[in-house]
Design brief:
This protein has one helix at residues 2-22, and strands at 35-44, 53-54, 59-64, 69-78, 81-94, 97-103, 109-119, 122-128, 135-142. The chain is mainly beta. Strand 1 (35-44) and strand 2 form a beta hairpin.
Length: 143
């Protein structure tokens, strides 16, 4: 009798583990995939000091789609002109890590990596900069 209970219990554990393994990985809430408006952009340059420096005239949008593609249309005001930073590519994420893969203006493949936090409709991206240790910090609001 005890042996039968033990085998039944083991069979139940095996079934439960197989069912769990077949489930798709958790995806973010549907609200994650949307168009975001750039609110702020700051640059943390370790050689200039420990505080991020805010960029001026930040605007534009970032669209994240459920199929893993994105469109970035970032604008910054500088020296009396508007600078445009446009990218179209793919993105991927795991937990709080995000990667953007695109082709730069010279036709070369590029990958930008960082972390993200989505809270109350605000998306914060902290992207690794160059040289190592520098960061770009973006705050965006979802539509």
């Amino acid at each position: 009798m005890k042996l039968r209970i033990l085998f039944s219990f083991l069979a139940l554990l095996l079934f439960a583990s197989q069912t769990h393994a077949q489930q798709a990985p958790a995806s973010p809430k549907a609200g994650f995939y949307t168009t975001y408006e750039y609110l702020t952009y700051a640059i943390l340059d370790q050689s200039a000091g420990p505080e991020p420096v805010a960029a001026q005239g930040v605007g534009g949008t970032l669209t994240l789609r459920p199929n893993g593609t994105y469109q970035k249309r970032l604008t910054l005001a500088a020296n009396g002109t508007t600078l445009h930073f446009d990218q179209d590519g793919r993105f991927a994420f795991t937990a709080d890590h995000i990667t953007f893969i695109y082709t730069d203006s010279k036709g070369q493949p590029r990958t930008d990596e960082g972390t993200f936090v989505l809270r109350n409709g605000l998306l914060t991206l902290t992207m690794q900069g160059f040289p190592a240790g520098n960061q770009g910090i973006y705050t965006l609001r979802g539509h």
